[in-house]
Amino acid sequence: MVAMLLQLARQACLFFGELWSTNTYEVALVLSGVGLLALYLYRQPRTNVPMISGGYPLLGHLHLFSNTVRYFAEAHAKYGDIFRFRLCGYEYYVVNGKLIFEGFRRFKDLSFYEALPRSALVTSFFGEQDTSDTSHIHLLRTTLPKKFDVVMDNIQRILEAKTHETLAVAADGVIGVKVIDQPYLWSVQVVGSAIAQFLFGPELGTDPEMFMLMLRLPENASTLFNYSRIFPLWVMDFWVQNFTAWPEHRRTIRKHVIPEIERRLAAQALPEADRPAPPEDLLQWMIEVQPRDHADWMDRCARRMLAMSFASVHTTSFMFHRILAHLSGHPELRAKLRAEQRTVVEHSGPLTSPAALDAMVLLDACIQEASRTANLAAAFQRVTTVDTVFANGQIIPKGSTVYLSPVAINCSAELYGEDWDTFRPERFLEGAAGMGDEKKTKAYTKSTAIRQNLLSFGSGRHVCPGRFLAVSEIKRMLCILLRRYDFETASGTPFVFNKVLLQDEVVDQPLRFIPLDDPVTGE
Ligand code: HEM
């Protein structure tokens, strides 16, 4: 083969050399060199990452749709920390196991922003994004921690009011059993409303049209993410623009946010004596930092607020709903959680105080366990900006789609034992007990702590900046519920948890809430 190519090159050189009257041997030498180089590059494998075997011809690994978590766990056991699979013409690389931490650290080589158009369909959902300005995300890392107590006090009030409004059936002053037909919608209604007020303030956050927007934001989104792995992006974009509510969501947010910004700017222009105190919400913080050198800066704010709503509302509601679904099947756990509340009230003060919330370690363990088993994000998507060679020598070519998958860590039998796929929050308390070191023990009792054995909020530069708010809100909401109500599925049969391609779905069913005869007190 090589001899034949050299012969061909020689003939070509002789021919062109004659033609251009150059020194035939020099041209022959250069062309042979180019030929050999091409041959070398051609022979050089673009990647040495193994492909998961057993895919369907042309269609690829469609069975990933059924149970990704188990599939990834098995693939990790067989192929190690990096493998790849093909789905409908697209090739995906999965980095998992311990190498995932190298993936998080190499954020310049594995770009979060380049992945966004496909991973979260952001361009289709929210319009063109200026990813060079991330000041709005920065606010969650800088301003939110400073104002956390004020924000959480507001959230607590809303959660209390909404729970009372939706669960207390006050016929003849008697609070009776209440069945919630669609607990997921209810969780968006309660948990989502509270976040909406953190995002938009007390007025806009309670506007009925904005509320409908919050409620409908997650509509079909996870299914669309799944399809985005099968179809070209332009097909997805066409679909989103013409057959979903997203263009309407964009119109709604503009319609409300732009006048609200104008109203706030007008209020701040008033003489000092008449000027109201600026509200403590994300929109206000964003108005204050948003550069105004573009005519459409208010429009940009509106689009960013839509993106922030999406990042915060459905993730938190989803996680809360999931915990409800688990707890509804575990009466003994609900009883233990109530006992924990009683002890905490005795020793750490009112149930809503930061110290009391911190002390509820079993409640926190439930959140950790739900997030561990849910793998809400079964893969954090990235795109390689260069040919990326990992520490183990495996090469992922430039421009590839990479999934940093927490599954092999969150669902590791080595880390979590043979019952890794069972919902058993106590494992985190046992883990904490075995730590010895105070710092590590503390980490085990905090679902917000980023550590090597739990990756529900990601890690590295793009680790979730909203996790403190989300966890505190979920804890508060569970506290409110557990101290006053018991709950179970109306059918008596437990929830079904489905794992579908890189997403996770819980088949919803009605929940019955029964007021307790002896509620936990400790306001
Ligand atoms: C239980 C609820 C939540 C879960 C499970 C969750 C999960 C995550 C994960 C896994 C990431 C990292 C993605 C990656 O590395 O590719 C992330 C990023 C992010 N999350 Fe959350 N999140 C939650 C709630 C929230 C809330 C309440 C907010 C806002 C208040 C929020 C705002 C964000 C933002 C802005 C990013 C992108 C960070 C960046 O680009 O650097 N999240 N979230």
Write the layout of secondary structure elements.
Layout: H1 2-20, H2 24-43, H3 68-79, E1 82-87, E2 90-95, H4 99-105, E3 110-111, H5 112-119, H6 122-126, H7 135-146, H8 148-167, E4 170-171, E5 174-175, E6 178-180, H9 183-204, H10 208-216, H11 221-227, H12 233-243, H13 246-268, H14 282-289, H15 297-327, H16 331-348, H17 354-359, H18 361-374, E7 380-384, E8 388-389, E9 395-396, E10 401-404, H19 407-410, H20 413-416, H21 426-433, H22 438-444, H23 467-484, E11 485-489, E12 496-500, E13 503-507, E14 511-515
Parallel strand pairs: 2-10
Antiparallel strand pairs: 1-2, 3-7, 4-5, 6-14, 7-10, 8-9, 11-14, 12-13
This protein binds protoporphyrin IX containing FE.
Protoporphyrin IX containing FE binds at residues 112, 137, 140, 311-312, 315-316, 319, 376-377, 380, 456-458, 462, 464-467, 469-470.
Report on this structure.
This protein has 523 residues and is of the alpha+beta class. It has two domains: 40 residues; 358 residues, Cytochrome p450. 56% of the residues lie in helices and 10% in strands. The protein is built from 23 helices and 14 strands. It has a five-stranded mixed β-sheet with strand order 1-2-10-7-3. A hairpin with a 2-residue loop joins strand 1 and strand 2. Helix 1 runs antiparallel to helix 2 and helix 9 packs antiparallel against helix 15. The termini are far apart. 37% of the residues are buried. The mean pLDDT is 87. The site of protoporphyrin IX containing FE has 21 residues, from helix 7, helix 15 and helix 23.
